[in-house]
UniProtKB/TrEMBL annotation:
<dbReference type="GO" id="GO:0016709">
    <property type="term" value="F:oxidoreductase activity, acting on paired donors, with incorporation or reduction of molecular oxygen, NAD(P)H as one donor, and incorporation of one atom of oxygen"/>
</dbReference>
<keyword id="KW-0285">Flavoprotein</keyword>
<protein>
    <submittedName>
        <fullName>2-polyprenyl-6-methoxyphenol hydroxylase</fullName>
    </submittedName>
</protein>
<keyword id="KW-0274">FAD</keyword>
<dbReference type="GO" id="GO:0071949">
    <property type="term" value="F:FAD binding"/>
</dbReference>
<dbReference type="InterPro" id="IPR050641">
    <property type="entry name" value="RIFMO-like"/>
</dbReference>
<dbReference type="Pfam" id="PF21274">
    <property type="entry name" value="Rng_hyd_C"/>
</dbReference>
<dbReference type="InterPro" id="IPR002938">
    <property type="entry name" value="FAD-bd"/>
</dbReference>
<dbReference type="InterPro" id="IPR036188">
    <property type="entry name" value="FAD/NAD-bd_sf"/>
</dbReference>
<feature type="domain" description="FAD-binding">
    <location>
        <begin position="3"/>
        <end position="356"/>
    </location>
</feature>
<dbReference type="Pfam" id="PF01494">
    <property type="entry name" value="FAD_binding_3"/>
</dbReference>
Length: 507
């Protein structure tokens, strides 16, 4: 019997596979596509997920060392001047999803994970001890038993449906989006900003979501080739016999949004070149993230508008949240209820993403009342505290899991510490082992009984804490600021160790 089967080798399934393998459980990944998809969705990663990749040594593989947070971003097509924020948390990594998935597949394979391509999950039943899967592979149908199944099979998740988990939410048919790789004439490009001179609109900055009364326009001059994107408000439901999108469709959509014939040329280079038409959008959250031995991660658990690019920030952190807890459960040291904290922690985060993507969609809508709301929102976004709030929301830096103590870092994402010898916390977390960072030099003995599961790091660092217990997913499980932690604090440390990492070996 397999310990864990993951259905779906998209980015979130692959990330989960890496996290499980790091925690000592090698899952089997089933992917219905025979080859990696050439479809590109995400153009980049936004928020804490960039720091998560750094903490696994994966940022380096995609783009070298992590860059400082972005100086500006967009919220509901309004400029977010992040220089106003006291603590700017918004990291951005402009790497296409295809490359993220390819890198994760390489990493999973390195860690010994088997990925069976061309194998589609088609049925499942479960009892108290196992899940039985029906799979159709290149050699025909077969059966497979596993202790756990994780559905990472996207928004239309077969796993979710087979497990009988409802997917309530809304489908909004009013939007029509076009995206294409296309060139724009050099004389329309502003040499200083890279923006576009568009008669009647001035210079539209690059990567900016520009709203008009009829829709939204984005010009993204990526190094691999510029991307033009529009979103319109159109009551035009999808029709099965609609011809494939052409560059002329893109031109016509830009004309409707900007009231100007932007002379878009054929894309340069070998491609593949994107021509994508999407109608409507779904906002849905699975009724449960777990049904017995079946769990959901990523788009299988939640779908929402892609505005602001929050999808992989949510999904890859779901995977990091679930990986170590599921591995602990399989390996037998999980404290009671640990696996259920996956949902109790991640559902509220998904709900916040649903909230802010819907709020942004509302700010993009046509109409004078929306324009007035945008004017007001724009004024608010000149207040540093409002910028901080929105930046924390979009990045996920405001996430706080249920703390065990009242230390301000407890339950929060561990800060980017640098030890006195120059070692970054991110270098200590590539193995995804729980860590006790002890800058007091007095806590080593407290780990007795947990040294098989938790590593001790001694040293010094300028930090808001003198010791921190850090979970594999990067969140703080306990912290103190005392130079010499007293008995009460030591008891709280023990409680945190038991709460997250189970009983001590000698107990
Ligand atoms: C147009 C667009 C733009 C986006 N832009 C961004 C962005 O800029 N930033 C961002 O963070 N996010 C963005 N997103 C969201 C992001 O693409 C998704 O959140 C992400 O793809 C979810 O990954 P996943 O692994 O959960 O699911 P998927 O990527 O959908 O992968 C699911 C995998 O499961 C496989 N599968 C399905 N059914 C089965 C089965 N029965 N058996 C076996 N395998 C199966 C599929 O073939 C697929 O490989 C965008 C989405 C869209 C649509």
């Amino acid at each position: 019997m397999e310990d864990v089967v993951i259905a779906g080798a998209g980015p979130n399934g692959l990330m989960l596979a890496c996290e499980l393998a790091l925690a000592g459980v090698r899952p089997l990944v089933l992917e219905r596509l025979p080859e990696p998809t050439t479809e590109n969705r995400a153009n980049g990663l936004v928020g804490q997920v960039v720091r998560l990749l750094d903490r696994r040594g994966l940022h380096d593989r995609l783009a070298g060392p992590i860059a400082p947070p972005a100086p500006a971003f967009v919220f509901g097509a309004l400029r977010l001047d992040l220089t106003l924020a006291e603590r700017n948390p918004l990291h951005i990594l402009g790497v296409p999803q295809r490359r993220v998935a390819a890198m994760l597949e390489d990493r999973a394979t390195e860690l010994g994970v088997e990925i069976h391509r061309g194998h589609e999950l088609t049925g499942l039943t479960q009892d108290a001890g196992s899940v039985t899967l029906d799979v159709t592979g290149p050699g025909g149908p077969y059966r497979l038993a596993a202790r756990y199944l994780v559905g990472a099979d996207g928004g239309r998740s077969v796993t979710r449906k087979l497990a009988g988990i409802a997917f309530p939410g809304v489908t909004d048919d009013r939007t029509l989006s076009h995206t294409a790789n296309a060139t724009v004439p050099a004389e329309l490009t502003d040499p200083d900003s890279g923006g576009l001179h568009v008669p009647g609109h001035g210079v539209i900055p690059p990567f900016f979501h520009y709203r008009t009364e009829t829709g939204l326009f984005v010009h993204a001059p990526f190094p691999a080739g510029p991307l033009i994107s529009t979103m319109e408000w159109a009551d035009a439901p999808e029709s099965a016999d609609e011809p494939p999108m052409t560059l002329d469709d893109m031109r016509a959509s830009v004309r409707r949004v900007l009231g100007f014939d932007l002379p878009l040329g054929e894309p340069e280079g070998d491609g593949p070149h994107l021509l994508r038409r999407l109608r409507g959008r779904n906002t849905r959250l699975a009724a449960r993230f777990r049904e017995g031995r079946v769990l959901l991660v990523g788009d299988a658990a939640h779908v929402h508008s892609a505005v602001g690019g929050p999808g992989l920030n949510l999904g890859l952190q779901d995977a990091a949240g679930l990986g170590w807890k599921l591995a602990a459960t399989v390996r037998g040291w999980a404290p009671a209820g640990l696996l259920d904290t996956y949902e109790s922690e991640r559902r509220p985060v998904a709900e916040r993403v649903v909230m802010h993507t819907q709020a942004q969609s509302a700010l993009l809508a046509p109409g004078r009342d929306v324009t007035a709301l945008r004017d007001l929102f724009g004024e608010l976004l000149r207040l540093p505290s409002a910028v901080q709030h929105v930046a924390d929301l979009m990045s996920g830096a405001d996430v706080r899991y249920e703390p065990g103590t009242d230390h301000p870092l407890d339950g929060r994402w561990a800060p980017d510490l640098v030890l006195a010898d120059g070692t970054r916390l991110a270098e200590l977390t590539t193995t995804a082992r729980p860590l006790l960072l002890d800058f007091t030099g007095s806590l080593g003995d407290e780990l007795r009984g947990w040294t098989d599961r938790v590593d001790l790091v001694s040293g010094h660092a300028a930090a808001d804490a003198t010791a921190l217990l850090i979970r594999p997913d990067g969140y703080v499980a306990w912290a103190t600021s005392s130079a010499a932690p007293d008995d009460t604090e030591r008891k709280a440390l023990h409680a945190a160790l038991e709460r997250w990492f189970g009983r001590p070996l000698d107990a």
